[in-house]
Amino acid sequence: MEAFGILLPLGVGVAFSSVPIMAVLVILLSERGRTSGLAYLIGYAIGLAGVTVAFTAGIRAIPERVDVPQPATGIAEIVLGVGCMVFAIWSFVIARRRGPEAEPRMPAWLRRLGTLGPIPAFGVGVILNLRPKALVLLAAAALAINSGAVTPVTWTIETAVFLALGISTIAVPVILVRRDGPRARAALERARDWIERNSYIVSSVVVVMVGVVLVGSGLSGL
């Protein structure tokens, strides 16, 4: 269970990724938001689980007879951690260059998500787990899950906790809409507007935090 010290911040990093959250808000605010939003959530959960399990299985599949240096996992964590921090700083600098007076602009492809039916929304949910940032976080999670002694029970618990945390920020608005219906619209619109203006700050802080945790874990394993 020692992997939780790394998995929890990684799960927070996945959960507070602004693109999947903005996508679910746009979909939920559309005419078919109830059905398309649920389909998006299911697709996102399946995609997140599929990529995480694929990375984990790939690492486990490395033959034991292969002579892997002892600090290899630590080096991989350091590389991923530095990559996270560089990406976060680069994203923050690009966003700040627009200036505080710049009006937030939602990408055209995100706006088009409001026209999707359930099946395309499901596909978008799956595909968003293939973004470079998502792949880095999920690869790091797979390394953490495979660190130390791994049994079927610990693997299941660690993976389930990571996935539950990762989809939490997508599941909550979907559940809210299905419970409250049109009454949830005002809250969703406020959340969408706030994320449009501040997503780069939240994402940068979270990803830097994840990077620091990974670098620290990697250094301790050298």
UniProtKB/TrEMBL annotation:
Ranges that cross the membrane: 6-29, 41-62, 74-95, 159-177, 198-219
UniProt keyword Iron present: no
Keyword Transmembrane belongs to the record: yes
InterPro entries: Gap/Sap (IPR021315)
Keywords: Membrane, Transmembrane, Transmembrane helix
Protein's name according to its UniProt entry: GAP family protein
Provenance organism: Protaetiibacter larvae
Source organism, top-level taxon: Bacteria
